[in-house]
TrEMBL record:
<dbReference type="InterPro" id="IPR046357">
    <property type="entry name" value="PPIase_dom_sf"/>
</dbReference>
<keyword id="KW-0413">Isomerase</keyword>
<dbReference type="Pfam" id="PF00254">
    <property type="entry name" value="FKBP_C"/>
</dbReference>
<dbReference type="GO" id="GO:0003755">
    <property type="term" value="F:peptidyl-prolyl cis-trans isomerase activity"/>
</dbReference>
<keyword id="KW-0143">Chaperone</keyword>
<comment type="function">
    <text>Also involved in hydrogenase metallocenter assembly, probably by participating in the nickel insertion step. This function in hydrogenase biosynthesis requires chaperone activity and the presence of the metal-binding domain, but not PPIase activity.</text>
</comment>
<dbReference type="GO" id="GO:0042026">
    <property type="term" value="P:protein refolding"/>
</dbReference>
<comment type="similarity">
    <text>Belongs to the FKBP-type PPIase family.</text>
</comment>
<keyword id="KW-0697">Rotamase</keyword>
<protein>
    <recommendedName>
        <fullName>Peptidyl-prolyl cis-trans isomerase</fullName>
        <ecNumber>5.2.1.8</ecNumber>
    </recommendedName>
</protein>
<dbReference type="InterPro" id="IPR001179">
    <property type="entry name" value="PPIase_FKBP_dom"/>
</dbReference>
<feature type="domain" description="PPIase FKBP-type">
    <location>
        <begin position="7"/>
        <end position="105"/>
    </location>
</feature>
<keyword id="KW-0963">Cytoplasm</keyword>
<dbReference type="GO" id="GO:0005737">
    <property type="term" value="C:cytoplasm"/>
</dbReference>
Length: 146
């Protein structure tokens, strides 16, 4: 059988971890997922790491922030008046909120992590929670084809 190539359908398992060892996502070997290489179902850099592997082979790759969830931008951390939340919600540090913002006349729903919640203000981080982080994936190809 030939190794994994672009547009192949593959059965894979993987574990994604942060440098601390914290597991952030896992697809166990006894329940692999099936995906098509190039479909974007998983990070493109992880898909690319599967290229050339044969069934039964594993690989560990370190995905840099720019190939994962992007760089961390301090400019995406904002302090807002607590009054913006009125009586709808009581923000607490660690909460991830879905907020409505308007940009260039278009309304968007965006996630924001509450970093701090004071009496008068709330500090929100609009970066992805994994932005700026290197993620290590250990991937295994179980099968190639349907």
């Amino acid at each position: 059988m030939s190794p994994v190539q672009l547009f192949d359908t593959v059965s894979v398992s993987y574990t994604a971890t942060l440098p601390s060892g914290e597991v952030i996502e896992s697809v166990p070997e006894n329940k692999p997922i099936t995906l098509t290489i190039g479909s974007g179902r998983i990070l493109k850099a992880v898909e690319a790491s599967l290229m050339g592997l044969e069934p039964g082979e594993s690989k560990t790759v370190h995905i840099q922030p720019e190939d994962a969830y992007g760089s961390y931008y301090k400019s995406l951390v904002h302090e807002v008046d607590r009054a913006n939340f009125a009586d709808r919600i009581d923000p607490k540090p660690g909460m991830i909120l879905s907020l409505t913002i308007e940009r260039e006349g278009v309304t968007h729903q965006v996630p924001a992590t509450v970093l701090a919640a004071g009496k008068e203000t709330v500090t929100l981080d609009y970066n992805h929670p994994l932005a700026g982080r290197v993620i290590t994936y250990t991937v295994k190809v179980h099968a190639i084809g349907n």
